[in-house]
Amino acid sequence: NPMTQAKHSQLRTALLCLVPLLCVGCSQPGQLLGRAAEELQSPESMAVAFNHRDGGRYRSPIDGQWRNGDNLEQMVIDAIDAARTHCFVAVQELSLPAIAEALVRARQRGVDVRVVLENSYSTPWSRLHESDLNQHSRQRWQRLRRLADTDHNGLISAGEEQRGDALAILDRGTVPRIDDTEDGSKGSGLMHHKFVVVDQQWVISGSANFTSSGMHGDAGAPRTRGNVNHLLRIDSAPLAAIFTAEFNRMWGDGPGGLLNSRFGRGKGDPNSASVRVGTSLITVLFAPHAKTNPHHGLHLINRELNKARRSVDLALFVFSAQEVTNTLAKKVDEGIEVRLLADPGFASRPFSEVLDLLGLSMPDRFCKLEAGNQPLQRPVKGVGTPRLARGDKLHHKFAVIDNRTVITGSFNWSPSAAHQNDETLLVIESPQLAKHFTREMNRMWRGAELGVTARMRRKLERQRAKCGSGVERGAAAAG
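Above: the chain sequence. Below: its structure as tokens.
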């Protein structure tokens, strides 16, 4: 109908800034090389945006400079501005004032706007005091103040504070919001969703939090380009209904009412659901589930990986699931080509399965080895980390199987995601969409460091000098 067509046109605007740029390094500015990036068709009723993409270009709202990538923030704002009846947002963190202002505009024109956040990020920063914060929270508070300091004089005026605090903007605009303590608990593992539902028709979901670090880079740190992320926009009333049901489980009767919001395991092990969008088949699973549930998220990932017959590409922020490592090892033994890129900061943590794939084990700071740790006897060759600007992270959580199936969402490949957190896991069968994610993988693969990096080696040497080979957790008690 005309309204849907108008929305479709408006929402596509953020994805059509195509410039012939190729990126040298994952999060560095692009260089013009005289060859246009490949133009890919999108699946029917679907679009995908990558904030470091070679062929996109936009002016960063943080520093005003042109940069490579798609503007994920504008994609979200355009969706909110197109809303006429409903706009439901569930995101771990929302600190971009322009998104908050769009939500207030929607509420002012009569849209039913509701927001669910993670409790760790649900207090306006302008109400916090630096001396009361731990180191992580203090660093975040300082970043948000720098973002609000629009005249860059190192001081935050009353006006800058008012305009720069996204959650305070929501509160002044009377946008109703809750966090994962609304059920009367101290919160779920994490309310880690990143999705928006508009007019019971549109869904935006992916890996990006609605923050400057998640989309553009940090204020005052011009080398950063933001954590490497993506968002999907899908036009499907049946899919929107599935996401709305998950939102309603968490929302209950809203802020301050009965304790009928449901988060974490309180949601009762939701089942997966599948819908067809054009020629694509989309399966949705919302976490968490009991470890004994045969349909939890890591089992779903494993089942899809076991279908691979030719290739598996993985780009992962967190990878700490031993059962998935075992499946990948089996696939390598079958001759399947496996490429895995992990966030450099996470890859060398003691519980990282990247180490297992490389045939390594690392004691933690207590000189303990992860219980049940099983480093491979034959390291996988196609494992590495991308080169990123200091401060940026590889924040994707995607896989591409046989160039036709995409696994994505907010779901990190970890037991915490499967069994504790509120998460979105999507399996999308679409060769057209797979091409977009493969192109992103290829972009990161260029210049990636494969095998045991210098960073890993230094950390291994430090831990072994301190701990020797380490002792497996529980071994002493068992003996």
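The two ends are 70 Å apart (CA to CA).
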